[in-house]
Amino acid sequence: MSGRDGSNRARDFLGSLDFDLDPALRINEPVVAEALAAWNRLRGDRAMPAPSDLDVLDLPRRLLPHLLLLDIEHEPALRFRWRLIGTHTTAALGRDSTGRYWDELYDGRGFGMLTRGPLWVLEHRRPVRILGRAVYADKAHVHSESVHLPLSRDGTSVNRILIATVYRIH
Question: By its UniProt entry, which InterPro entries does this protein fall under (predicted)?
């Protein structure tokens, strides 16, 4: 599986990738719960906070390595782009895809599985918890818990998703 730039998109991936969506937000990881609490403080009585409400200097420092920002492009076609990827994720996955579009990074089933969370958030305009499991050739099983938190410039359309994630390598 090669990307448009000739790079190996799914390097080391063995083909086992699953994500379970949990709209009830039954969060186990303290860092993920703390991110949800911070998002709720930012939004106040609105459905979602604006991207401009997010200031990393106002967030607990221990959250920062676990945060990712996903840009949502609605026109001319729906696309996802990693705006920011925290060091916890880059260390766990062994790469930094900041600035890259998902359709350039991921193929087939992996792309389909990864888009489930953002597509759910776009439709429902509220957070969702995601439990992930993957197997890579150079790692043991990788488990993750994350929460996808919508951000909106106009209070209606989701323009960005703040993600907090914790990886556990077994």
Answer: DUF1457
pLDDT single digits (tens) 54-113: 998 889 999 999 999 999 999 999 999 999 999 999 998 888 999 999 999 887 777 888
Q: How many domains does the chain have?
A: 1
Residue 118 preceded by cis peptide, ω within 30: no
What is the Cα–Cα distance from 129 to 28, expressed in whole angstroms? 10
Domain residue limits at 156? 13-169
Position 7 in a domain: no
List C-alpha distances in Å: 131 to 36, 48, 98, 137.
15, 22, 22, 20
**Which segments of the chain are extended strands (E)?**
13-22, 67-73, 79-85, 128-136, 141-151, 160-169
The CATH number of whichever domain residue 41 belongs to comes to 3.30.450.20
Find residue 71's DSSP bridge partners: 81, 160
Query: How many Cβ atoms sit within 10 Å of the Cβ of residue 128?
Result: 21
